[in-house]
Design goal:
Elements: E1 2-7, H1 13-22, E2 26-31, E3 34-39, H2 41-50, E4 56-65, H3 69-78, E5 90-98, H4 105-124, E6 129-130, E7 137-144, E8 147-153, H5 175-185, E9 193-195, H6 202-211, H7 232-245, E10 254-258, H8 261-273, E11 280-284, E12 294-295, E13 298-301, H9 312-329, E14 330-331, E15 334-339, E16 354-360, E17 363-371, H10 377-382
Parallel strand pairs: 5-6, 5-7, 9-10, 9-13, 10-11, 12-14, 13-15
Antiparallel strand pairs: 1-3, 1-4, 2-3, 4-8, 7-8, 15-17, 16-17
Helix pairs in contact: 2-7, 3-4, 5-6
C-alpha cells in the first residue's frame, strides 16, 4: 500500500472520492482539487482505467521542505533516480506552484531537470534526454509554500483526453467536467437524456459510456505503461475485466441535438470514434423552435456564455428564451444548465432547485437544476 493523489476540477472532489471508494481505495482524504488515498498497484491501475472525474493520478515519491531554489535542487539531486529510470530513458517535468516562495512553475521545473541530469552525470558520466511529448517517465513537482512534493505521473496526457474526440467545436466542454456534472446531477441512467445544444457531443458520449459501464480509460494509453515496474499482466487482466463489464446497450434513450450542422458533423465523428453511434440519437434541431410537448425527460446543457460586453443584452434575451422554452414545452422534466455568465443565467425565469459552483477552466460557473411541472409546484406537493 502506498500514497496516491488523484487530481480533479474544483467542485468535483466528492464525486471523485466516491469513484475511488468504488474501486477499493483506502484512507480517502478530500483536499482542494484533489483526493489523497492509499492503494496498491491494482488500485492505481483501476483509478486510471475507471475514474471518470480524475485528471491525473500521481504517486508521491518524496516530500520535503525547501525555502529557496538551491535547497530544492539539492533535495532533488540526492534522490535515487535510478530506481525510476535509466540514463537512456527520456523524461519530462510538470510543475505547479502556489505561495510566495516559489512563484515560477517553469523555473522550478528547470531546476528539477538540472538536478536529475546532474544526478546521472555524477554516476553515469552522461545525462538522460528530455521529451515533453512522449517521455518514458513523467514527473510532477508540486510546491505549496515551502512544502515540495515530487510525484510520478502515472497518467501522462490528462484523463480528460479520453481518446475519442476527433474534432471539437470552439470552447468545447472538457470530458472530465461533463462526466462530473452528470454525476452531480444524479442522473439515474434510466430516464431519457437530451443535450439540446450538444456541440461536440461530450455530454451524450459521457452519458452513454456511464450507462453502458464503459471504462473511460479504455480508449487510450497511460504513462505508467512505460514504467520499469509496470505489471503488464495485471493491466491486461483489468482491461479484460472492463471489456466483460460493458453492457450491450444503455437502458436510457440518449439524444444529442444542435441547430448547427457543423457542430453535428463534429459530434457525429466523435460519437463514431467512441463506438457509440448505434446508441445515441443525433439530429439537427433548434431548441427554441420546439413545438411538441415533451414529458419526463432529463436535459443537460452548456449554452454559450457570451463573454464579450456587447453581448450582454443578447445573452439576457437568450437565457430568457431558454427559460420560456423549458416552461412551455418540457413538462415534468428536469434541466441542468451550466453557465459561466453568472448574470445571464438569472434571466431564465425559473427558480433553481439546486445550485453548484464549478469552474470550467478558469471561468467560474453556476450549475443549476430547474424542474418543470404540469401545474404549480404546490399542487404537485399536495398530491
Amino acid at each position: 500500500m502506498f500514497d496516491i493523489i488523484a487530481t480533479t476540477f474544483y467542485g468535483l472532489e466528492p464525486v471523485l472520492a466516491d469513484e475511488l471508494i468504488a474501486i477499493g481505495a483506502d484512507d480517502i482524504q478530500i483536499i482542494t482539487r484533489a483526493v489523497v488515498f492509499k492503494g496498491d498497484n491494482e488500485t492505481l491501475y483501476r483509478a486510471n482505467l475507471w475514474c471518470r472525474t480524475a485528471l491525473k493520478v500521481l504517486v508521491p515519491i518524496r516530500k520535503f521542505e525547501s525555502y529557496n531554489d538551491r535547497e530544492f535542487y539539492d533535495h532533488v539531486r540526492r534522490m535515487n533516480w535510478q530506481d525510476y529510470m535509466a540514463v537512456d530513458d527520456t523524461f519530462a517535468i510538470d510543475s505547479v506552484t502556489s505561495g510566495p516562495i516559489f512563484t515560477h512553475s517553469k523555473y522550478l521545473a528547470l531546476k528539477c531537470k538540472d538536478a536529475i541530469c546532474d544526478y546521472f552525470r555524477d554516476r553515469r558520466g552522461r545525462r538522460p534526454n528530455v521529451d515533453v511529448e512522449y517521455p518514458d517517465l513523467r514527473i510532477n513537482v508540486h510546491a505549496f509554500n515551502s512544502t515540495i512534493t515530487i510525484s510520478l505521473d502515472s497518467t501522462g496526457i490528462p484523463m480528460s483526453k479520453r481518446g475519442y474526440k476527433v474534432r471539437q467545436v470552439q470552447a468545447p466542454l472538457n470530458e472530465v467536467m461533463a462526466a462530473g456534472m452528470l454525476r452531480l446531477s444524479q442522473w439515474d441512467m434510466r430516464t431519457p437524456l437530451i443535450d439540446p445544444m450538444c456541440g461536440s457531443g461530450t455530454f451524450a458520449t459521457e452519458a452513454c459510456m456511464m450507462a453502458m459501464d464503459i471504462a473511460p480509460g479504455c480508449y487510450r494509453n497511460f504513462a505508467m505503461e512505460k514504467w520499469r515496474t509496470f505489471d503488464s499482466k495485471l493491466w491486461g487482466k483489468l482491461q479484460q475485466e472492463a471489456r466483460q463489464r460493458r453492457k450491450p446497450k444503455p437502458e436510457a434513450e440518449i439524444a444529442a441535438y444542435d441547430r448547427d450542422p457543423a457542430a453535428l458533423d463534429i459530434a457525429s465523428q466523435n460519437i463514431e470514434k467512441a463506438g457509440l453511434s448505434d446508441f445515441i440519437e443525433l439530429d439537427r434541431r433548434d431548441f427554441f423552435k420546439e413545438e411538441s410537448r415533451i414529458e419526463g425527460k432529463f436535459l443537460i446543457m452548456n449554452p454559450p456564455y457570451g463573454e464579450r460586453l456587447e453581448d450582454k443584452d443578447e445573452m439576457t434575451a437568450f437565457y430568457k428564451q431558454i427559460g420560456d422554452t423549458l416552461k412551455n414545452h418540457y413538462i415534468n422534466c428536469k434541466a441542468w444548465i451550466l453557465s459561466g455568465n453568472l448574470d445571464a443565467i438569472k434571466n431564465i425565469g425559473l427558480h433553481p432547485s439546486k445550485k453548484i459552483k464549478l469552474f470550467n477552466g478558469a471561468i467560474e460557473c453556476k450549475f443549476e437544476c430547474f424542474e418543470m411541472y404540469d401545474g404549480t409546484r404546490k399542487k404537485i406537493d399536495r398530491n
